[in-house]
Design goal:
mainly alpha; 21 helices; ARM-like; Cell differentiation protein rcd1; CNOT9
Length: 396
Amino acid sequence: QQEKEQQQEQEQQQEQHHHPHHQFPEQQQHLYHQDQQHQQHEEQQHHHHHQHQQHQHQHQQHQQHQQHHQHHQQQHHHQQHHQQHHQQHQQHHQPHQQQQSQQLHTAPQGYGGLMLGEMPQQHPSEEISRIHRVVYDLLDPELRENALLDLSKRRESVLDLAPILWYSFGTITVLLREIVGIYPLLNPPKLKAHASNRVCNALALLQCVASHKETRTPFLSAHIPLYLYPFLNTTSKTRPFEYLRLTSLGVIGALVKIDDPEVIRFLLSTEIIPLCLRIMETGSELSKTVATFIVQKILHDDTGLDYICQAYERFYAVTTVLNNMVAALVKSSSPQRLLKHVIRCYIRLADNRRARDALKPALPEPFRDGSFDEVLKEDNSLKQWLGRLMMQLNEM
């Protein structure tokens, strides 16, 4: 029996050796609880770290939002300032635009717009929509006259009026019909002021088309300037005819002002120079100035200079008219504007060797005898142009 008890005790000791947690249950539970608490503590720390990162990210977003909000406020403030400035600008220019409109109503200023070269102002969409409606009114014979007047007043203030006119249905046809419609009044001369003003408004719109880079080439390709040549060929000195010639010259002047060789080639092929030369001799001072400006711009192009100097008859025709103009300007009270264009024509002719040799003995005497001394004292730029001409001809 003692042996059995000893054997049982040995077996219990062996079992306890193989299963130690049965030997120290409280210690194992304590270690387990410690491990569990440690894991919970790590999880809490990880959770707090994650929350901290989220808070940092939210804080950054909040700062970015504040910066973005400040940027929007600055933009809004800038827009308000720009709107106020634009309103002041419109208020400042409104009387000037009204004055221009009154001038156009009494005398279409084809040359005035050409020389001033005013920059057009952009208009809001409501104004563009109104322009489209007025252009559409051109198709109605009863509304056409007022539409022509309205559009001619706005031609320098609406940025894209030329493409609107060119690409809108039937508009160019209507303008050409206005032009062709007064041909019967040219010879014998029966043109009155009302009809002249109406067709001059149509011509002012064609000048707008001729000036725009997008419509100039198709305008030339359609040979539309040829419709104006009968007006340039008139000789009546009455005011309606003078306005008609002046506004027609304004269309041609708008073309040559761009310095486009394609324009010069077209004009040379259509015999524009004889028409201009006649106006340079017989027109009013303003018409003479625009016609001389056109000849000057043609000479400025190498093709134009070669064309005039190629045949002596052409060179002689041009220089004869220029010489006669100089003789007439001696008696003028304010010859500066026209004289400057005349001198620049001589200077450009002198760039050609054969023309320079021909000019030396034929230069107008008033350039040599001091007839323009008083004028030259008042206008330094004119004095410089004449001095340059004399140097080219070895006169100094």
